[in-house]
Design a protein that fits this description.
With 399 residues, this protein is an alpha/beta fold. It has two domains: 249 residues, 3-Layer(aba) Sandwich (Aspartate Aminotransferase, domain 2), CATH 3.40.640.10; 120 residues, Aspartate Aminotransferase, domain 1 (Alpha-Beta Complex), CATH 3.90.1150. It contains twelve helices and 15 strands. The strands form four sheets. The protein has a seven-stranded mixed beta sheet with strand order 2-8-7-6-5-3-4, sandwiched between helices. It has a four-stranded antiparallel beta sheet with strand order 11-12-15-14, covered by helices on one side. It has a two-stranded parallel ribbon with strand order 1-13. It binds pyridoxal-5'-phosphate. The site of pyridoxal-5'-phosphate (PLP) has 13 residues, from helix 3.
Length: 399
């Protein structure tokens, strides 16, 4: 069970929050880190006063904690961004000229849309098929290549075979970025173990409040690229004539403007608490809830669990349901109104994958599918939450 610093804070103990995959609740470690800093923060990287010095130190310490959380290598850069979308867009703008990007079409839009020169592969049905499809795609590609893959699907919760795919990518000289928005809240995310060159994730899905995310990984492409946001902080020297300037290197190059100190510190506090805790116990608790939910769903008429790799494939605490003959949005609304359960309905910013899973036309326009209903959970979730949604589904689907 979670340790104290990983207790979820909530003022509504009667609400069954089962929409963690969208935004997870805040844990005590993050709340306390913010509260501690509120009465004494000042500018970051910009002042000589005691508040500014302490804030700069807190910000850079947060970076060190995140570096440890992702197992950053000595030459890696950790950049604070707004969220995963921002982190992946940053990397997309930093790619060397002519880079081909390769990804499966089941990605979240944040890992589907930012990439230039995309080579989009159909979502495979098995991990082996994924490996073979990637090999075929990479064979013969010239110039720099970036393979972009999710760690865990935001639709099905299934864990992607990142390491196997990364090994293939590296064998062909390609680089790899892992979208860990859904993996990091549930599993350790080590760059070396994943075989990733970069990793991206969001604080608001990792039990910290909104507004901070991370891109961490290889420095060379990031240092060679123009700054993500031109302005103060990103510039090292600025002359009198336009264009007469030098840009900073390291994280500063891509963190133009005043940084989100509270966001970074909150996010790092969660990373620190997760690093210090027994992840095996958290994992076991989550898998217990997952099994209870899936067993219960098997007895709910009209609810069909969806998956890419099959029902036995490992997954994090996310389950999506097709509800043939029902409107998932209406069911989700009734669960909220009549059972005080928060779930999500729709296509979850993964339109091609949801169309495929619902038998829709994957080449058709967005919005031609009723979508799915998604149940997701994590730290602080209980068997009572799971039982509540099961009762709610039985009642709403039966009437
Ligand atoms: N990637 C995945 C797998 C996600 O689930 C999400 C959000 O749901 C994102 C990326 C985008 O995250 P954010 O909205 O925090 O930028």
């Amino acid at each position: 069970m979670p340790s104290f610093s990983l207790d979820v804070i909530s003022d509504d103990s009667d609400f069954a929050h089962l929409d963690y995959a969208a935004s997870a609740p805040c844990v005590r470690a993050a709340a306390e880190a913010v509260q501690d800093l509120l009465p004494r923060y000042g500018s970051v990287h910009r002042g000589t006063g005691v508040r500014s010095q302490a804030s700069t130190l807190a910000y850079e310490l947060a970076r060190d904690v995140v570096a440890e959380f992702v197992g950053a290598r000595p030459d890696d850069t950790v950049i604070f961004t707004r969220n995963t979308t921002d982190a992946l867009n940053l990397l997309a703008r930093a790619l060397p000229e002519g880079t081909t990007t390769v990804q499966f079409d089941g990605e979240h839009h944040a890992n589907l849309l930012p990439w230039p020169n995309p080579l989009r592969l159909p979502t495979p049905s098995t991990p082996d098929e994924a490996v073979h499809a990637l090999k075929r795609a990479l064979d013969g590609l010239a110039g720099p290549v970036l393979f972009t893959v999710t760690g865990a699907s935001n639709v099905t919760g299934e864990v992607w075979p990142v390491r196997e795919l990364a090994d293939v990518a590296h064998a062909y000289g390609a680089r790899v970025v892992v979208d860990a928005a859904q993996l990091a809240p549930h599993r350790p995310v080590d760059l070396t173990e994943l075989g990733a060159d970069w990793i991206a994730f969001s604080g608001h899905k990792l039990y910290a409040p909104f507004g901070a995310g991370v891109l961490a990984g290889r420095s060379d492409w990031l240092d060679a690229a123009g700054p993500y946001l031109a302005g103060g902080g990103a510039s090292a020297t600025v002359g009198d004539r336009p264009g007469d300037l030098t840009w900073a290197t390291g994280p500063a190059r891509h963190e133009g403007g005043t940084p989100n100190l509270l966001g970074a510190v909150a996010l790092a506090a969660v990373c620190e608490a997760l690093t210090a805790t027994d992840r095996t116990a958290l994992h076991e608790h989550e898998q217990h809830l997952l099994a209870r939910l899936r067993d219960g769903l098997a007895g709910v008429p009209g609810a069909v669990e969806v998956s890419v790799f099959g029902p036995e494939h490992p997954r994090v605490g996310i389950v999506s349901l097709a509800l043939p003959g029902h409107d998932p949005a209406a069911i989700a609304q009734r669960l909220g109104r009549e059972h005080n359960v928060g779930v999500r309905a729709g296509q979850f910013c993964a339109h091609p994958l949801v169309r495929r899973l619902t038998g829709g036309d994957v080449t058709g326009a967005c919005g031609d599918t009723p979508g799915l209903l998604r149940i997701s959970f994590g730290l602080g979730s209980t068997t009572a939450d799971v039982d509540r949604v099961l009762v709610g589904l039985r009642e709403t689907l039966g009437t």
